[in-house]
Specification:
The structure holds two protein chains of two kinds. Chain A is of the alpha/beta class. Chain A has nine helices and nine strands. Chain B has one domain (2-259). Chain B is built from twelve helices and no strands. The chains are: A alpha/beta, B mainly alpha.
């Protein structure tokens, strides 16, 4: 772990010098990405025995041939209808799904997916979950210990932090999840519709924190959202996905305007 | 295989931490908390001892401890198998949100089961003192037998964990299978005495749990040497199962999130 960190520091130093040399550094490269849900449904043995014919394979391609690149420090917004493959693609970038075709290159950056819950074990306390989630994001116990106070403070859920997560309200759950990913900073943050988390006060706090995180010019961010105002305000670039394909990509204003027009028209 | 070891190195702290947290959460909500780890195996032992000495007139020497050792080995295997079948689905929240090598989940679970098994064995030794079973140096072969049990259970667990993701009814099947193995393993009878001929040979040699159980009793209760070749054979089979399981999981683990 330690060695890895060191290596990372070394590469980031190297990157800095590189940056001066060519000003641009790519953080994520996605090439011709295809992701399909096929033949992977659960099998019931009874159904298998009763119908001796092979199980019909439903192939559903959620992402079909998406390619894009993001420079380090940029914020990419992804917009599109429900079921257009946005979340699937985010998960693939986070390494949870495997791509059926095509490649995703993260250029050795650490990545975290922030989508209402980092993956909590509901039986355990919020406190334990901070550590477990943090460790899964690639941090060591010491690093988390150093940030523990900050996370608890930011989550602002009082004594509930020492209670099992299953007792949390959905608001508290998201607050803690947001706090963990926001304070334990990874190089790439993938955000799936979380800007509307918690009560008004927390919403404002998380929005401010988001802006702070995003404004860090080393951090690359991908935001999936249905809210055009948010994307318009935060993003450097917007990608419009439509049934698994890139429909439009470019400057937020132009893309979002066309998107709005088509949605309403 | 190299990937496996680097993953273990990277995630073993996580596995330990999560196992500890799980044990803690298990007891934090009950009145008798950690006492259950002792009460549970002891009560099972008492039930079986009652049924088989009073009702069936069994006459093994040190019958309670005989049952207890068998039960302890059995419980570990049983927990590993039942635990692994639904493991991925039970960790849905985790699996769909963050990448984790899936065998780390099983590893972490196995730590909690190991912990319970060691408590059980500590109790067994306590019982041996109570019943004045003579201690012998062969007891140290315990440390040879446990790894065999672990590797075999882990191997089966890995493979079942993979198929458990796709096959919903696997849970029911393994329950039936486990019940069969339970009665064929000689938890409360001595296969060596009760059965004869090929059946005895097949059951003792072909069933890893029966084998481990009888070896464990040999070294703990009867001060005899274990069958080394048997241990080696099962250890190798266990390692092979693990290698196959790890291979399958590496190949498929990123598809799990799509199914559950």
């Amino acid at each position: 772990m330690l060695r890895k960190r060191k290596e990372k520091e070394m590469t980031s130093k190297k990157n800095k010098t590189n940056e001066i040399a060519n000003e641009k550094k790519i953080a994520i490269t996605v090439k011709d990405l295809h992701i399909a849900y096929k033949g992977l449904q659960k099998i019931s043995i009874r159904a298998h025995l009763l119908k001796l014919k092979p199980i019909k394979k439903d192939v559903f391609e959620a992402v079909r041939g998406v390619s894009f690149e993001i420079e380090e420090g940029k914020i990419l917004g992804i917009i599109g209808r429900n079921g257009s493959g946005k979340s699937t693609m985010l998960r693939a970038i986070a390494g949870i799904f495997s791509a059926d075709k095509g490649t995703i290159n993260l250029h050795h950056n650490t990545v975290s997916l922030l989508s209402i819950g980092v993956g909590f074990n509901k039986k355990l306390t919020g406190y334990e979950n901070i550590y477990l989630s943090g460790m899964l994001l690639g941090f060591s116990e010491e690093e988390i210990k150093n940030k523990e106070k900050e996370i608890i403070e930011f989550a602002d859920i009082g004594d509930f932090i020492y209670k099992p997560v299953k007792m949390y309200s959905s608001g508290m759950y998201s607050k803690l999840a947001f706090a963990i990913t926001a304070i334990l900073e990874t190089d790439i943050m993938l955000i799936d519709e979380v800007l509307s988390v918690g009560d008004t006060q927390f919403k404002k706090k998380s929005y401010d924190k988001m802006r702070e995180l995003i404004s860090d010019d080393k951090r690359t961010v991908i935001i999936v959202s249905h809210s055009t105002p948010t994307l318009l305000e935060l993003c450097d670039e917007v990608l419009w996905l439509d049934s698994g394909k890139v429909k439009m990509q470019g400057d937020p204003k132009t893309v979002l305007e066309t998107y709005e027009k088509e949605m309403n028209g | 295989m190299k990937l496996f070891f680097s993953n273990i190195k990277k995630y073993y702290r996580y596995a330990i931490r999560s196992a500890k947290a799980e044990l803690k959460s298990e007891i934090s909500e009950s009145y008798l908390n950690w006492l259950w780890w002792i009460i549970e195996p002891l009560s099972f032992m008492l039930i079986y001892t009652f049924v088989f000495t009073v009702v069936f007139h069994s006459s093994e020497t040190y019958f309670s401890i005989f049952v207890f050792i068998g039960l302890t080995c059995w419980e570990f295997f049983n927990r590993m198998i039942t635990g692994s079948v639904r493991l991925i689905a039970n960790n849905r929240d985790l699996v769909t949100k963050v990448y984790i090598p899936k065998y780390i989940l099983l590893l972490s679970k196995s730590f909690t089961y190991l912990f319970k098994m060691f408590i059980s064995f500590a109790l067994a030794i306590l019982l041996m003192v109570l019943y004045q079973v003579p201690f012998s140096p062969t007891m140290f072969y315990f440390f040879l037998i446990v790894p065999v049990l672990y590797v075999v259970s882990f191997g089966f667990g890995l493979i079942l964990m993979h198929f458990g993701v796709f096959i919903d009814d696997l849970k029911n099947l393994t329950n039936i299978g486990l019940r069969l193995v339970f009665y064929l393993s000689g938890v409360f009878y001595n296969i060596g005495d009760r059965l004869k001929g090929t059946l005895k040979y097949v059951l003792l040699r072909g069933n890893p749990i029966a084998f481990v159980m009888s070896e464990m009793r040999k070294v703990m209760l009867y001060a005899t040497q274990p069958s080394f070749e048997g241990l080696i054979v099962w250890f190798v089979i266990g390692i092979l199962l693990c290698v196959i399981g790890i291979h399958i999981i590496h190949k498929n683990e990123n598809s799990y999130a799509k199914v559950i």
